[in-house]
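QA checklist item 7 of 12: single-chain prediction sanity check.
[x] sequence parsed
[x] length recorded as 204
[x] structure emitted
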Amino acid sequence: MGWAVVPLITVGLGSPVSFLYAAVRRRSAGLAVAAAGYTGALVASYEALVAPGDVPHTFGLLLLLGTWIFSGMHAIGIRQRLYPPADPSDQRNRRVVEAARYRRTLREEARRIATEDRVMAHELRIGRPDLGPRAYDDGGLIDVNHAPPQALSMLPGVTPEIVDRIVRCRAEHGAFISAEELAMQADLPPRIVPDIAEYGLFLH
């Protein structure tokens, strides 16, 4: 945005540099031509100003004034086209993506704790949203081997019928070691296995 006001605050003298900068940044041949045109106009106005006689001086002043006004209007007129304001929906989407990535890092850290220190994992209630308010945020993990049906239903894509299958298989075969084993034992739809692998925790 700053380049657009340079022609105005420099009385047009900075217009070649301003438009050359914009041309390089935007890779625009048209802006490069404009930079060359404003350079030629400034050179012509300087030559007229230093030439003897009142008529050349007047012409030089008028040319310099015209370059100043036209280049300033030109820069401001194309500024939004070259650098459109950020769409609020784009900003909102970026925030949502950043939040999702942050939640993923929370799950990764919670898994690390659960792997390295099971006692701490139980103390922090990792994967157990059913145990009431928790100070520790595990990013939405569900302990498939210990969570009750209402917590298992929070897994993505899991229906009440699938919850019943998981609970029954858990009672018959014991704890699961992975989402893949769970999928085989409970005959889960393949489409939900990646989501269960992402959000499921398999503590023993």
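[x] summary fact logged: The chain has two domains: 2-82, 106-201.
[ ] second reviewer sign-off
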